Amino acid sequence: MAALISLNGVGLSHGAKHILNHVDLAVDEREIVTLIGPNGAGKSSLVKIALGLEKPSQGQVTRRADLRIGYLPQRFAIDAALPMSVRRILTLTAKADDAMLREALREVGVENLIDASVHNLSGGELQRVMLARALIRRPNLLVLDEPTQNMDIGGSVECYQIIQRVRDRTNCGVLLVSHDLSIVMAATTRVYCLNGHVCCSGHPDDVSRDPEFLRMFGPTGAGTLAVYTHHHDHEHAPDGHVVHEHQHHHGHHHG
After folding, report:
1. What's the alpha-carbon Rg for the chain, to the nearest Å?
2. C-alpha 191, offset from chain centre
3. pTM
């Protein structure tokens, strides 16, 4: 099967300003591809190009004919003056019956919030609702721009577990933008480190040792990236502390 989406030689310029330069990136079914990089590296621009919201200045984007994207944007403004229930925000962009809405909310663990006002939700709850919103159309590609913002470490780990469960159940591909180097999702197939161009890419363990990566994030970044690719070796309590850790990782400090 062809890749769900592939970007070849993609560049983006605004006037004389080069935002992206010759980026190659692909996401296949079942793959979890994580995009990391400093602020201003062009991560959100790359996502917009992948989504078709922005046209690249160079290169091409190829989408599989059956591509259905579920998108969790990095920022969404909800007008505080408008009363808005969770049910309403879920149906703003998709036609869905009650059963579908409940199924999506159940998937992310907040089915009980269906009639709540979005203005009363915590940051983490709102983030889950927006993830549910991305799932409603049963996408085969999830594009998630900083899905764990506003979450503590326990919430982040849980959010990643939800994403992995969805992937396992539906075989979708995932393109994930991460602002937090310390938690790159355990199931990540490939990390792309972006700074206007792809500095390095590959399995998280390899990227964490790459000289380009070390130059950009320093040795502390590498240590945390390597540690947190090993989520499957231990379990977290809801507050984030490690409750069970296999012996060969006892040297890692979590914090």
Report:
1. 18
2. 11
3. 0.81
